[in-house]
Amino acid sequence: MGMSRCYALMKCLLILFNIIFLVVGVGACAFCGWALWAGYGGAGAGRAGLWCVSAWGAALALGAAGCLRGACGSCAALRGGLALLALACAAEAAAAAWGAAHAPQLRQALRDRLRDTVAHEYGLLPDRTHMLDAIQHGVRYH
Predict the structure, then answer these.
(1) What is the reported pTM?
(2) Helices (H) and strands (E) in the chain — how many of each?
(3) Residue 63: CB partners within 8 Å, gap ≥ 6?
(4) What cellular-component terms does GO give this entry (predicted)?
(5) DSSP codes, 65-102
(6) Tens digit of each residue's pLDDT (9 = 90 or more) over 116-130
(7) At what angle do helices 2-38 and 75-101 cross, to 10 degrees?
(8) Is the pLDDT reported for residue 9 higher than 90?
């Protein structure tokens, strides 16, 4: 009796978390598709980043779908789904390591982009950009 309750709980958690992974993966793919379609990729590096995020989202969504199929009784689908989820996990770890290694360059790129956006949208008048200068100052020193 105890084993069947534990099994039911694990199966319920498998289904719950994979539904969440499925929604996140599909959402990432949809966001990247919209950003690429609307032209927000900008330079080649921006488009490449969006394609990488969409590939990660696709791996996450397909892995979650495979695990959900596996929860219904297909061992092969469960193995494939877990392999895709492991691949998505490795991609997240690699992205986090890359981001940590390039944090100063990423901060500088964010500051440059914010400065260009403020200058383009609001001009260079001091009275119109005072609040935005305070935000930039906060970003720069925190």
Answers:
(1) 0.69
(2) 5, 0
(3) 21, 25, 80, 81, 82, 83, 84, 85, 87, 88
(4) membrane
(5) HHHHHHHTT-HHHHHHHHHHHHHHHHHHHHHHHHHHHT
(6) 877 776 666 555 566
(7) 50
(8) no
